[in-house]
Write a structure and sequence with these properties.
By secondary structure, this protein is of the alpha+beta class. The protein is built from three helices and four strands. It has a four-stranded antiparallel beta sheet with strand order 1-2-3-4. Helix 1 runs antiparallel to helix 2. The chain is elongated, with a radius of gyration of 19 Å. Bound molecules: zinc ion. Zinc ion binds next to loops.
Length: 123
């Protein structure tokens, strides 16, 4: 890593790290499914869930550091990814569908909508 970037996160390293974290959680989930049903299995499953939530939280924090937009429809927040076709950052949850259009001129329609009850300012 270059000295000038030592204080910044390297997206490649962070990406590997998060993928490893996800792989570990998938592995643990597989292990839990092999346990005999009962209290211990439920507790183990709960702990895997907690680890996954913790991973998602750090993922969101890293994404924010890297300049990604976050959708707050869930907690931990969803990381909004750029969709070239829509020219927008889009929430990965289909049922949410929140999109942030970049570099878009604000049209009269948008201005009118922003005054409505369903506007983003009203949330
Ligand atoms: Zn969303």
């Amino acid at each position: 890593m270059e000295a000038t970037t030592s204080n910044n996160l390297d997206p490649n390293i962070v990406g590997d790290w998060l993928r490893d974290g996800k792989a570990a959680i998938d592995f643990l989930r597989g292990v839990v499914s092999l346990l005999p049903k009962g209290v211990d299995r439920n507790r183990a499953a709960e702990q895997v869930e907690q680890a996954e939530t913790a991973l998602k939280k750090s993922e969101a924090a890293v994404a924010k550091d890297l300049g990604f937009a976050l959708c707050q429809c869930t907690f931990p927040p969803q990381i909004m990814l750029w969709k070239e076709a829509d020219k927008a950052h889009v929430c990965p949850r289909a049922e949410c569908g929140h999109a942030i259009h970049r570099g878009m001129k604000i049209s009269a329609e948008m201005l009118n909508r922003s005054r409505g009850a369903n506007s983003w300012m009203g949330r």
